[in-house]
Design brief:
Elements: H1 3-25, H2 30-49, H3 59-85, H4 88-91, H5 98-110, H6 116-133, H7 142-149, H8 151-176, H9 181-202, H10 209-240, H11 243-250, H12 252-264, H13 270-288
Helix pairs in contact: 1-10, 1-11, 1-12, 2-3, 2-9, 2-10, 3-8, 3-9, 5-8, 5-13, 6-7, 6-13, 11-13, 12-13
């Protein structure tokens, strides 16, 4: 199967997962959902452990995977908090800013030159973000002031920073450290479960595990299957194709999640937000696929 078909499968299931997450988060806390989902995912990931060639594993590779899983788990929790506090059509498009953040960070920290196409992509990202935040307010700066005041935006921005790091580590683990895909899937979900159990112990007051499981376990079980499929598809595509191209296709999931999810949940100003999302996706593709 061609890599782009696999990437499209990842995009489809990623969009489905985002919509289902929003539905569950209407009545569940972000940490409760994350913990129960991690447990379901671990159960589904058990078969991967039986297909691992353990002679190919290295201590350094597993250590980096553990570190990456910590960052990934925290990033996922931040996204859940963002989706819970914001309309899905307003939260998800902000995740498209990742390529712009990477390019700008490389320019500031490493002194890497920005190509004209990358600058154009960043302008589109900023323009799309501006349109996304408009909400019919008056004044040129009102969207940015609105952005700063909304708590949910900060969760998404923190997730963006962490996803920037984990996307690089994904490719390094599969290519440089030669971590087999089955080992990646198995151990990553084991580490996710450990991290969320640890967070639940620390923030036990914010976790009503028994109640959440009773009322939402069926939806979370379905979400777990969808999550396993899109994570495996994404990693498989990254393994056989340039990560920039895979991410370009996976960005499509954000548009469909915004369009379908926004319609289902009756988000305000959906047409404008869809246009803003499309502009941001084009900007992201210009940056990562040049």
């Amino acid at each position: 199967m061609e890599w782009y078909i696999i990437a499209l499968i990842a995009a489809f299931f990623s969009a489905s997962a985002a919509i289902l997450e929003k539905k569950i988060l209407f009545k569940e806390k972000a940490l409760s959902l994350s913990l129960i989902l991690a447990m379901f995912n671990l159960v589904l990931a058990i078969p991967f452990f039986f297909f691992i060639d353990y002679t190919l594993l290295s201590a350094s590779g597993i250590s980096v995977l553990f570190f990456k899983s910590i960052l990934g788990a925290v990033a996922f929790l931040f996204v859940m908090k963002g989706i819970k506090n914001l309309d899905i059509s307003k939260a998800l498009p902000l995740l498209v800013l990742t390529p712009g953040l990477v390019a700008f960070s490389a320019f500031i920290i490493l002194g890497e030159a920005l190509k004209l196409i990358e600058i154009g992509g960043m302008v589109l990202l900023l323009g799309g973000t501006y349109i996304l935040q408009l909400d019919n307010r008056r004044g040129f700066l009102s969207p940015w002031k609105s952005f700063i005041k909304v708590k949910g935006n900060y969760y998404i921005i923190l997730a963006l920073v962490l996803f920037t790091i984990t996307s690089i580590l994904d490719k390094a683990l599969l290519q440089n450290y030669k971590v087999p895909l089955n080992a990646f899937m198995g151990f990553q979900h084991l580490f996710f479960a450990i991290v969320f159990v640890f967070l639940a112990i620390i923030y036990s007051r914010g976790v009503s595990l028994k109640k959440s499981f009773k009322f939402s376990w069926k939806l979370i079980a379905i979400l777990a299957v969808i999550t396993i499929v899109y994570r495996y598809s994404y990693l498989y595509a990254v393994k056989i194709a340039p990560v920039a191209l895979v991410l370009s296709i996976k960005r499509i999931s954000v548009f469909f999640a915004v369009l379908i999810g926004g319609k289902l949940f009756e988000d305000r100003s959906l047409t404008r937000r869809c246009i803003a999302t499309a502009i941001m996706i084009i900007g992201a593709i210009l940056i990562i696929a040049n």
